[in-house]
Design a protein that fits this description.
This protein is an alpha+beta fold. It contains 3 helices and 11 strands. A hairpin with a 2-residue loop joins strand 4 and strand 5. The protein is globular, with a radius of gyration of 24 Å. The relative contact order is 0.14. About 15% of the residues have low confidence.
């Protein structure tokens, strides 16, 4: 009887150790997928540093639009561990830079507008944090940036803005999309310059 009890205890110990080993080798799925996807996204954009993307306005197809018929250029100018700066040129207008930063609150997209002399425009540094949009989470190749409080105060009409910046590695293309009140407002498509 004593031998049987020892064997049972030994068997339970082996089962317990095996279970612990399996748990440590196969941890449960992370509940922090968004943080993981935004980290992967930032890393994927960092790999584009030094590359230039050239394209045009895809929407709206309005010949009166400020960007209509103008060459668009996005240049991944500088990348650090916490910030990516992408000057965005519209024709001869070099006043815009997209800034994507890693912050404690998550990824942040800002639009830095400057005058020719380098001084900040009156309307500058608007944007927002990466987040879920229309029930979809961001991915390693695309993130949605929802207008923040600063943007809502600076440009009240833009309080519902959502900017989406996506990269397609197969097509080597970059898409910049803006929606307002969940409706399309602007879209640019650019391809890497060889």
């Amino acid at each position: 009887m004593k031998q049987s009890a020892k064997t049972t205890l030994l068997g339970l110990s082996v089962i317990s150790l095996t279970s612990l080993s399996l748990i440590s080798c196969n941890p449960p799925p992370s509940n922090n997928f968004k943080a993981d996807s935004s980290t992967q996204y930032f890393s994927n954009l960092q790999k584009l540093c030094g590359k230039t993307f050239v394209g045009e306005t895809a929407y709206p197809k309005d010949p009166e639009h400020d960007f209509a018929g103008k060459k668009l250029v996005a240049y991944f100018e500088s990348c650090t561990n916490n910030e990516i700066r992408i000057p965005f040129t519209v024709g001869e207008d070099h006043s815009r830079t997209w800034i994507i930063s890693r912050t404690e609150k998550g990824l942040l997209l800002k639009h830095d507008h400057r005058h020719h002399d380098g001084t900040p425009d009156e309307i500058t540094m608007y944007g927002g944090y990466a987040g879920d949009y229309k029930g979809a989470e961001g991915t390693a190749l695309s993130q949605n940036f929802l207008a923040d409080e600063h943007t809502a105060q600076l440009i009240p009409a833009a309080s519902s803005n959502v900017w989406t910046l996506s990269f397609d590695p197969e097509k080597q293309s970059l898409t910049y999309n803006l929606e307002r009140h969940t409706k399309p407002r602007y879209k640019a498509t650019l391809r890497v310059k060889n």
